[in-house]
Amino acid sequence: MIPDPGRRRSWPPEKRFWVTHLVLPLAVAATLLTVLEQTSVDLWLADKWFAIEGGHWAWRDHWLAYDVIHHHGKQLLIAFGLLLLALIALSFRVDSLRRWRLPMTYLLTSMAVLPSLIASSKRFSPVPCPWDLTRYGGDAVYQHNFEYTFGLAESGHCFPAGHASGGFALLAIYFAAYLYARRPALFLLPGLVVGFVFAFGQQARGAHFLSHDLWTLSLCWFGALGLFLLFRPQRWPSSRPALAPAAESEEG
């Protein structure tokens, strides 16, 4: 699964890149999010969690959902970010790491910027968590996400999903490896697996609806794509330097 640093796709990409990375994801995201906004799927799934847990959010402070997935999961991402930072610093002294400096810097930037933007946006969101709703023992009235009036809000702050953004930001691993990997789709797995583990952990706690997490997934995907383009992948190097003219003639 380790990408080959000597192999590099051409850039700019073919039309297929834009179809598979922008057009199709946009169509799928728009369809799913519209369905969730117009139906009661969010409530149906939250009702299932609530019933399984005995008519209260038993997993809200559970060691697995809170300590392991929420608390230690966040610490694990911070540790990975610090490792990336250390490798980037070493790349100025270690030749074998130099070729990875731009992809690693892109990845670290994505991991820092995307969750930060999503966390900041929550200040303007009056959307409550499931555990705040009268349906589940709270005092807030349920509405679909965009039936609320957005602005600086004193309460709510549960949309989009903040914790899951740390996991879904790892989708940037895919773009960091895209130019070099033989099977780049495999590099989607870290972001999808960690993101959905974080998402379902928070849903089990009553902290988020499914739509909150799918909005976060969509924002992280398109954010990672946008940052990938801003990092000008055409400048990302191959590890195999071009042979000098003299060397080429001798080999010829």
Could you list some keywords that capture this structure?
252 residues; mainly alpha; disordered C terminus
Describe the structure.
- By secondary structure, the protein is mostly helical.
- It has one domain.
- The protein is built from ten helices and no strands.
- The chain has helices spanning 15-38, 41-52, 63-90, 95-98, 101-121, 163-168, 172-178, 189-205, 210-230, 245-251.
List the helices and strands and how they pair.
Elements: H1 15-38, H2 41-52, H3 63-90, H4 95-98, H5 101-121, H6 163-168, H7 172-178, H8 189-205, H9 210-230, H10 245-251
Helix pairs in contact: 1-9, 3-5, 3-8, 5-7, 5-9
What is the alpha-carbon Rg in Å? Answer: 21 Å
Beginning-to-end CA distance, first to last residue: 34 Å
Main beta sheet: none
Tell me the number of strands. 0
Strand-residue fraction? under 5%
Question: What best-fitting shape do the alpha-carbon axes yield?
Answer: globular
Structural classification:
mainly alpha
Question: How would you sum up this structure in a few lines?
Answer:
The protein is mainly alpha-helical and 252 residues long.
